[in-house]
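Justification of computing resources. Each target in the renewal requires a structure prediction run like the one illustrated here; the chain below, 321 residues long, is used simply to show the kind of job we budget for.
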Amino acid sequence: MKIVNVLDRDGGQVAFLDGETVIDPVKCPEPGGGLDHRCFSDTLAFINSGDPGLAAARRLVSEAPEAARVPLSQIRLTAPIRPSTILCSGSNYRDHNKEKSNTPISGKEPEFFLKTADCVIGPDEPIVYDEQMSTKLDCETELGVVIGKAGRHIAVSDALDHVFGYTIVNDVTARDRQVRTAGDFTWYELGRSKAFDSSAPIGPAIVTADEVGDPQALQLQTRINGELRQNSSTADMIWTCAELIHFFSVNFTLRPGMVIITGTPAGTAWSTDRELGGTWQGLPGLTPATRYCLPGDVVESKIEKIGVLRNEVVQFEESAN
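Resulting structure tokens:
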């Protein structure tokens, strides 16, 4: 099942994607089974409704009246979830680690940083280019893991039982705020370089775990202005989704609606930036970046079985207020 949020005057409203049709659950009969339409009031409420909510949603999709069906082309989507906490793992793809300046822990343990709801935008919403913030804005397509069941110190063997579904997240990064050097020593500043306005595009949908199947067997691609920049598989992760769930659950009680992002493969603009330690690997079929993102660029992040997340980079404009 694919869960989307339809943009309305109150923000996002949960809906379900059936091919190229969006189904509005509020325009369907009451779901029954002890549930009512309140379980579809937002994505977190739907996740918390558990298996009964999923079963009810599947019935609605199969039995939805015509009045509840709208062509996707007539709908504007927003982020399918706006998590308060996004737990992020860096340096988690083997080929990506070969193309960049590395810290002493790169590839030896998951790198750990955070993004918040303030970073989130949805499909076709703008990634803001603010030269006062960064002139080296880079994009990273990543698989997002949406937690569905709470837990702490979760065993790797049990980890995927805590997953509600998967989505796409673009980990937009300010490289000129990330990489720090002192002599031969390199470290990352993962606060200002990762968490800022529009640095976490999410979408276009959350796909339930049963439809995705093995999260370590998904093709991942990034195109910028149509050029293929990243093309890899989640099989290239150093730490699997299950291992990352275990890792983050040591620090936090993982709660429904939290999102874990799982790193990005080779092909970032960083790889061609010698000043910041980039080492382009020349992987077959990929177009090396000649620069970082600028206003007017269109970024398309694609993951198999989930879809394509599209965002344009736009120039920051000071508010009149």
